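Bug report (template v2)

What were you trying to do?
Predict the complex of my protein with DP6.

What happened?
Run completed; filing so the output is reviewed.

Input:
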Amino acid sequence: MQSSAKKLTLCSSPNIAFIKYWGKKESTCDEDRNIGLNPSLSMTLSKAQTKVTLEASQNFEFFIQDKIASPKDQEKISAHIKRIEEYLQKKLSPFKLSSSNNFPTGTGIASSASAFSALTCAFISWMEGNDFLQKALQEKTQDLANLARRGSGSACRSLHGPFVEWNDRSITLHKSNWKLYDTILIFSKTEKKVSSTDGHKFATLSPLFKERLTKVHDRIEKVKKAISEKNLQLLGPTIEEEALEMHEIMRNNPHPVEYQTEECKKFLKEIQKISSRDFYFTLDAGPNVHLISEKPIAHLVKMLLEKSSTHAEIWEDEVGSPLSSC
Ligand code: DP6
């Protein structure tokens, strides 16, 4: 992180959920926004990053990927500035904000998580300085997580690493030196037709949703055990079951959504044929596949893509800690 009186740059990475936040509690005020109906647990990545730069300016100006932010994004950013101002009980002095991702946006790599994690930290640092921010991340962990969560639910898990559990209004950090890799297969770069925000609503209307809530606690315990024992054979089947269930719920509700493309389905079939595997998949709300392993597997993935006659761009990532210099 670099900062001076006039300029500040900060980066944050997305996280991949092993146990998904999918389905929100009803909210009547901003403080209650984006609270999951079940606990979730994720791994923070390191190579994919959202970089936010703030520079002093006469007026607030917002740029995303070098373009003026859309009215919808401007609104979301302004609402987030307001949250931070209320928290700090101060007005933020105006800045030009530039936010950019070094990875494809809207493709199943959770860009809203890294964006709102980076924005939360950048706004706090802008007003109070980096030392204040670092101290607040340690000592006001829940306050900062709740601020980020109000921007986008999954963002509260990107403020820290390597593994973060989020339940209602609090997060729990699971320290570990388990080196895991996430090889992401980008089957499609098309922005998803149904936003996560709508997806969360539709999921709760599925007849399968209630049953999911009864299973998710057991799954999260398995994931925590797997992390503490560094047990990939326990983690893998659990996260696959979780991801497949989420996609099944989206197919079975009054607003059915099929997130998987034909190529994605073909590829998943191919890997499920392999009898003993040392890599396991998960998916978010999209067709792109995250393969979790203890070793880099890009070479193997290329072979599997050929075998299943499918094409995907590959993004190689790995577990990381949260905010980094960039
Ligand atoms: C499928 O955090 O993007 O990635 O709170 O509406 O911004 P909002 O939703 P968002 O939902 C993420 C959903 C997910 C699963 C997860 O990350 O837990």
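What did the reviewer find?
Residues 17, 20-22, 34, 40, 110, 112-113, 152-154, 196-197, 200, 284-285 surround DP6 (CB under 6 Å). The first strand starts at residue 2 and ends at 3.
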